[in-house]
Every structure is written in structure tokens, then in C-alpha cells.
Amino acid sequence: MQPHPAQQHDSPDPDAPVGLVVVSAGVSNPSATRLLADRAAQKAVDLLRASGTPATVGVIELGPLAVDIAQAIVSGFPGERLQAAFERLAAADAVIASTPVYKAGISGLFKSFADVLDNDLLIAKPVILAATAGTARHAMVVDEQLRPLFAFLRALPVPTSLFAASEDWGDRALSSRIERAATEAVLLLRADVGRSIADRAWNGYQHQFGGNATRAEHRVTDVDFSTDLMRLATGGRRDDDAGDHHDG
Amino acid sequence: MQFGIFSVGDIAPDPVTGYTQSEAERISNIVRVAQRADEVGLDVFALGEHHNPPFIPSSPTTLLAHIAALTERIILSTSVTLVTTNDPVKLAEDYAMLQHVAKGRLDLMVGRGNTVPVYPWFGKDIRKGVALALENYNLLHRLWREDVVDWEGEFRTPLQGFTSTPRPLDDVPPFVWHGSIRTPEIAEQAAYYGNGFFANHILAPNLHFKPLVEFYRARFEHYGHGTKEQAIVGLGGQAFIARRSQDAVNTFRPYFEEYPVFKGSSLDDYMARTPLTVGSPQQVIDKVLTFQQGFGDYQRQLFAVDGMALPVEMALEQVELLGTEVVPVLRKEMASRRAPGVPDAPTHATLVTDKYGDAEPRRPRPNPNRGDNLSGASPYQDSDPAVQANFPQVL
Q1: Which of A77, A80, A221, A230 to probe by mutation at the B interface, max B CB count within 10 Å?
Q2: Which residues of B100-134 are buried (b: 16+ CB within 10 A; e: fewer)?
Q3: What pLDDT, on a 0 to 100 scale, did the predictor assign at position B379?
Q4: Domain A17-197: which topology?
Q5: What is the pLDDT of residues A225-240, one digit of tens each?
Q6: Taking CB atoms and an 8 Å limit, are B265 and A71 in contact across chains?
Q7: Closest residue to A209, CB basis, from B154, B211, B219
Q8: Topology of domain B2-356, CATH
């Protein structure tokens, strides 16, 4: 698919810092969930800096947004603080998503936050998936719940999932898994895979006009007028041009 | 600038008294609300279309025709007419007939609606909702402008040599608004035809619809209908008015908090974040002036005031306050802020003048039945003899 001219972003500024954003659904303080995410973020920053790429880390704590998230689900639109979180997440180059496991699944707070995100907010963004739990019996929650969730969002979860039960905090193997996940994320970032995918294929995903994604259509110049539906909007038949036949 | 009210004709238990209106009561009451809107000088009464309880307007043209007979001046409209699940041929016929009996006091707003099961109830596929809306309007547009239509599309049986009757009053179709909350294709269609664009506006943050309205304005200009400032824009709004703002909040709060759509939402958030105003006439005026500031000069402002289980006496009082204390001030204030050259929304009278000037409007007279109930290529005495219709081959 040809990229739409207006949505081809300029080549990345090689000196611009890479922006990592941690999303943590941990609610205690200190929080193991947040700690796991922070360690992955720090490792990624170290690896990036070692290769000469400056990086910054921002954090979105979901606990303080819990009421805002619940309100957004009910009212259908975000309040100002939640909107600000969307914008920070949209601007991230990579995401570290971290949630506690309570009852054999990811935290409802984390899932509720995911439920109010635009479908196209995280397209092709590298994501490190992480979860913490009180027992190793929950170890598959990351791969069985977080990974499909981010697959739906068309994000790029890195191959290594992070999981830390209580006993893992005393095991050096956790550090090596953190390093592996961070390395994978950094290599995806350095290869600019996410941006390349978005540059080449953005129009192939479903979008909402005026959405929160950094590439969302907001103006006339963002909109592709060559689609079947746009032809139909102007009195033409949808099938006027044979071939490319899809439903918006 | 036109001001009016729009209603979805909903019924809900009154949270204060526990009383639920019967369908019979709600139908009578909505007629009273429309009559009061006419009496207090509002410009527009628009009615939604729903095909399930607890809503009453399944047959908007029937109800609006009755209201037309009981009112003098008010323009009747819809909010919205479902252009997806209704047959565009029947829409052309029903709304042309309504336009005649309303003596031209009619326009309509077409849209997709928000009720998923309506599609299967009427045998349509919701996944094709946007395409249905676009194609059906394309046909409706032609049926009102061409005496004889040959047509083939994806969603309905083809037409050959079809004449939609009655022809629009004075051969001038009702003005059409396209309502949409997120779909640039719908805004594009409105702009392409030079029709109006209406943003529901309520139930979403202030200015949420600005990108789509701006898109429509730019495309209206692109298609040569005027500058983008001259595009025909309508906005929704929602108000509950009392002379003292604290009375408004106290009275309205239970209706807001108990209404199904708003359960769990905070009234204060809604007042701060969305176009809803609960307060004094001056507060409503101030809020609407922010709409003009945010969206630019626009042509139609509709308020939702009669729903949410309000007893009819309260709804009538809302219409009264709107018509006597809010709208007169807004007319003056918005006119004084309005840029020169911004047109009013078209009405039947202005459309007739645009088409004919001082000449007599066309009033088509049919030719006699040929005996086969097909009208041929020349259904009317003044039909263009050059038009050729393609009829089905009978072997």
C-alpha cells in the first residue's frame, strides 16, 4: 500500500531523545509492578545511551487515574487528566506496560485503561510486557492476556515477556530476562521498525477521524480522498475502479 | 441564525415521582412541546427516529405532518432520519409529501443513527453502514431533482424510468443536513452537495467536533459552494434553565443522575466538559456564545430540552424560557458578532427565490395514465421530451 503523502513523517531527528513511557497499574507504594517496569526502562535507557542515543522515560501511573478511567468508560469520553495521559502515550516511541496479577488475570484497572484507548494509538510501537504476582502459578498471564491485548492494538510486543513472582526478586535470572527484553526493544527502536511500518501501512489500519494517535487525521490534508467510500460520498459508485475493494 | 429544539422522543420513569408516561401520553406531549416551540417563536422543531421502546418516533413523517397542521411558523426537521435502513425511494416520497402538507416548512437531517439492531431489523448490514448512508443519499438527491431516474447501486433493487411522487413542493427539494459525529465521508458528502452539516455536539467534550466541522467547511469551499465561513453548520446543545442557577441544578440533578445514559456520570463534569448547561438563562447564553467562538459563525442551534423523563409541564416551561429569555438575547448577540457575508440556513422561501427569482415556481401536472401504470419518460406535461427512460424489457 502506498503511503498517503500527508502521513509520511519526516525522518527522525538522529539527535532527538527516544521517549519511553511506563504504564504501571501497580497501586501500592513502593510497587513491585512499577519497580519491574522501571528496571526494564532503565536497562533500555542504558543500552540506548551506550549506543549514543539519548533517551527519556515518562511514567503513567494508573492508580491516581482510576476514577477518571471508570468515568470515561461510563461517559464515553476522557477527562482532562486522562486525555493528557493519552497524549503522552501517543507520543511515546516505546512503551513498558506493567500490571499486577490479582485473580488469575491482569488488573482490571489496566484492562479498563486499555479499553478507553483509541484502537490505533499504539500501532507498531515496541512494547515490553510485564506483570507481577504473588505466586509463580500466574506466570503465563503476560503471554496469555497482555500479549493478545497488545496484538489487538497492533502494537509490537517484544519476544521476551517479563514476569516476577515474589521469589523472582531474589533470582539473577530476572535481571537477565529484563536485559533480554530491553535489548529486544532497543533493537526494534534502533531499526526504526515501528516508524517504518506506520509510514508504509498507516492507511491500512482502521482509524477514527480526530483521534488521539499522533498520525490521526485532523485536517483536510490528512485525509485520503481516493478511497471507495470517498468516491461514493461524491456521487460516484464504489466499484468505479476495479481492484482494491475493501470496506473502509 | 435559527434556534430550535430537537427530541429523540424518549420515555423514562420520572425519578422524582416514579411516574412513567404511556406511549399515548408521550406522543400527545411531544406535540404540545412542538406547539409551544412554535408559539414562543423558536425556528425549528426536529424529531429523531427510533424503532424500539422506550422511544416513540418510529414514524416521524406521520407525527411531523400532524404537528405541521397544528403550527404556524416553525420549521419541522428531523434528528436524524435514518438514511441507512430506510429505503431512499420511500424517504423521497414520504418527505416530499410532508413538505407539501407543511407548505414548505420542512427540512431534514439524514444520518446513520446509533442503534445497532435497527440494521438487522430492516434487513441491512451494519458493517456497510457508511456505504449505505452515502449511496442512499446519492439516490435520494437524484429522486428529488430528476423527474425520471434510472439508477443502479449496491444496496437496493435497480430503478428504471422511476418517478418519485409527489415532486417536491415548487420543484424545490427540502434542504438536507447531514449529521455525523466521526465520519469524514459523511462530511464530504454534505460538502459535495452544498448541503448542511450538523454536529450533535452533546454527550462529548466541548469542541470535540471541531475537526470534523472544519473539514466540512474546507470541503464546502473546495466544491465551490462559497467560502468556508459560508458553509451551513448546525450544532446541538442541551440545557436545563431556571431563573436562579442553583434551582436549575437542584431540579435537574435527579433527572440527570437517574437517566440511563448518564448513570455513573457526574453532572458537574458534564456541565464543565460538554455543551450541557444547567443554570440561568444568562449561563445558557454565555455557553452558546462559546460555541460561536469555537466553531465560527453557524446557522442552526438546536437544544435537547424535553427528554430525560422531564414531566411535560417542566418541558413546556423549558421551551418557554428558551424562547422568551434565551433565544431573543442570543439572536441579538450572535448577529452582532457575526462576520459579514455569512448566510442564514436556506429555507423553502429562499430556495424558491434562488431557483426562480420572481418567476412562477414549477408545479408539475401529470400526464394521464397510459394504462400500464408506467409513466414513461414524460410523466409530466412539462417533462423534457429529450429524456429517455430505460424500462425493463418485456419479452
Answers
A1: A77
A2: bebebbbbbbbbbbebeebbeeeebebebbbbbbb
A3: 85
A4: Rossmann fold (3.40.50)
A5: 999 999 999 998 655 4
A6: yes
A7: B211
A8: TIM Barrel (3.20.20)
